[in-house]
Amino acid sequence: MAVPVIMPRQGQSVESCIITKWGKQVGDKVAMGDILFSYETDKAAFDEEAKNEGTVLAIFFSEGDDVPCLTNVMVIGNEGESFAEFDPNGGAAAEAAPAAAEAEAAPAAEAAAEEEEIAQAVAIVGEMKISPRAKALAEKSGADLSKVVPTGPDGRVIARDVQKLIDSGLLVTAAARASYQGGVEGTGLGGRVSLHDLEKKPEAPAAAPAAAAPVAAAAPVELGAPVDDSYTEPMSNMRKVIAKAMMTSLSTMAQLTHNISYDATEVQAARKMFKEKGEKFGMEKISINDIIMYVVARTLAMPEHKALNANLIDDGKTMKYFKGVHLGMAVDTERGLMVPTIFNADKMTLKEISQTAKKLAKECKEGKISPDYLKGASFTVSNIGSLGIESFTPVVNPPQTGILGVCAITNGFNVVNGEIKVYPKMNLSLSYDHRAMDGTPASKFLVDLKNNLEAFTLMLARG
Fold it and tell me: 445 and 299 in contact (C-beta within 8 Å)?
């Protein structure tokens, strides 16, 4: 039995997704769990796995197409089965068929309709004269009007001209229509012009054949001599989104970074205790980052720090404060940086934060995170201390007003009673939007965070 594969809806806020790569082609055998295609939203990338076995009977879109969620993208079934009922592009053809039959049965009626069409006021599209009926048919079907041959009076495009384009397969995909200027040969399904076709660079004209000449041996390349061994490749859609977000952040905010360090003795001791004795309580996997996020959430919940637990919206005119702390957590994946949100982190236990953080990080790395969890954060924590980074300047994720950078633990030195004492020191870097707050309240947050981390056991006991 033929079964359609739809474009999943990754979260309630996502209306469409871009197909980035096909894992199967028409005629390929499919087993359960095979990757059918990869796709991206504006925030994340995913792989769609096969939930049925069979053969790929049809593929309705091309790589680069922006496909509405819940739309059929392909069909899997047994060889020779019909799949026409699942074709999302078949609507126009299905409507055209009865029209053609009606025209064949009643040519007089069609002629009358054409006379009525010609009598209507002409519409102007660019320099093209087109009847309203033909214009509506072209918009509905995606006909490539750059290839139309007008047969109406005074060079006007009428419905039969557009229908000829449809019958010839001269169409443009829904995703490509907005930026299509015409004149491109389509390589998509059925000859459609797709986004992939629009992004292709025009091929250079072939050079005239040169006269035959003796082939000289290639000169050896001298070591140290200039050489161009570079190559180019397009950025992924996700990388483009990240790049745009970073540029927006740095170009629209008055960002500033403050740094402080704290004595991590108590945090390390707690981590050691959880690792050695926490198994029966399900807390043996709690990390130092879990502890930091626990303390950050409770420090942000203090009324005096509400400007950091906020979003600056309306082009910097309105502060949106949150009653709960919705903590963004930067996660490095093969596809790029993702920031899932731990909602109401200030009301969670340390164990709950740890479990939630690990679950969200795993889903990000597997490409299975719902976009609903990639938004709504009121503050973000970015930890690259495991890489040995001792200080850095994290970039605020708009519309948030702050982000905390967590650095590596290094040796700190104190002088106690004339003796040098070594202690574990961790640097914290707070970047904040100076439009939302001044330097003093930002510094006070860092001081409170430092004090709370150094008294972590008491803070944990308080709940």
Answer: yes
Helix (H) or strand (E) holding 383, with range, is strand 379-383
- Tokens, residue 137: 């048919």
47 classed as catalytic = no
Which domains does the chain carry? 3-87 (2.40.50.100), 91-196 (no CATH), 238-462 (3.30.559.10)
| Residue 457 to residue 337: CA distance in whole angstroms | 32
Q: Quick check: is 258 catalytic?
A: no
**Dihedral sign computed on CA atoms, order 420, 421, 424, 426:** negative
The active-site residue out of 263, 290, 315, 434 is: 434
d(CA 350, CA 331): 19
Indicate which residue of 154, 228, 438, 448 is catalytic. 438
What is the C-alpha radius of gyration for the chain, rounded to an integer number of angstroms? 31
Which band of pLDDT confidence, cut at 50, 70 and 90, is reported for residue 212?
A: low
Give backbone dihedrals phi and psi of 446, rounded to 5 degrees, phi first.
-60, -40
Q: How far is CA 53 from the centre of its chain?
A: 29
**Residues 213-252: tens digit of each pLDDT:** 555 565 666 788 888 888 888 777 777 778 888 888 898 8
